[in-house]
Predict the structure.
Amino acid sequence: MEAQDITRKILIVDDEITIRTGIAQVLEKQKITAATAADGREALDLLARQPMGIVLLDIKLPDMDGVELLKTIRREYPETEVIMITGYPAIQSAVECIKHGALDYLVKPFRLDELEALIDKAQNQLNQRILSLAPEEHRGEGIDFIVGQSPAMQKVFAKIRRAAPSDSTVLLTGESGTGKELAARAIHNLSPRRDKEFVPVDCSALVETLLESELFGHVKGSFTGAHQTKHGLFELANQGTFFFDEITNLSLNIQAKLLRVIQEREFMKVGSQKRIKLDIRIIASSNRDLQDAIKAGTFREDLFYRLSVIPINLPPLRERAGDITLLVEHFLEKYRQRGTREIIGVSSQAMKMFCAYSWPGNVRELEHTIERIVILEDGELIQPEHLPSFISQRQSEFQVFSDGEYTLEELEKRYIQMVLRRTKGHRQDAARILGINRKTLSAKIEKYQLRVP
């Protein structure tokens, strides 16, 4: 969402209806979208559904303390500016509000020009923080192409905006398909290095024996087949951003050399003793728990701490289910424009089934599903019968829990069998969905004598 949009969305939280409606009427005359809430709970519900650029918050609320609500807003919605409203002016309370992140405060009764001045101040703050990071020529390349309005994604966007201007290393974590490379590109495109190269490297796709040469380059004759001097990927990325995708696939030997690159900001080509200075920003990603990899001895702890200066976790799609409708519509439009037939949209029943599915492959799986439906299925409206069997059969699978009375042990057995069937017998994926480790899953499979596909 563009900065201009968010700065013109204001939430008014006050238990006095005359205050709420009066401010809302003033703002709407200025073509500002005004939402209102009578208490803290209603305010949090509204913020969860719709991000707001500015909150006007009464310090005295019927259901909670305004300062506590301020703390919650600043923690959960760090991009939102908060202006406190109080009928009990006191230096101590004002200082406390500012200390906990309020931009400023208004004392009742306040004049219209005072309100307008503080709203202008808040809008300027938002514009400086957001628009300065994304000039006009780059704005479409920042976070705008990452689809999501859920609170979980708003937190991710806030961290990306804050991380982008620095040169600190960033570690992006999250399951496969959650959009880690999109986040890495957004950080680069919102950074001062935006006009330089963004060089992504899939660490799982490179052959180990060639990886060192690919990264660092080599000089002619340094090994068999080195018929000429080659520039490595680090040189190509100089003054830009280097992205290590799935960094846990690097060998311990390459990890040690990467650690030296990060520490010394220089490297040597294979077969050379000449040190080359390097000016790059490093971003890394992993779909594995790096702490587990450290315990297993497959990842260096010192490298982990060098990489995770700014950690950003990309939530799985099942934890941001509110974004599924947006994503379906986004991908439908994307592939509709590429195709030859017109699709009006998705039926309400089909959309419910999209939203009910857990999407173990996350956003990538959802996109591939939409692409397949657009290409292969007929009709102007996507119906339940157009959905792949792994989605459409999900509801019938859950009938195993409603066709009788069962013990907790029997329900566990049936549920594990269903998850194994959905993951096609892949135990690691099944264990992740079940929230247990693979060893525990194997023990339960043996205990219940389950059939693994």
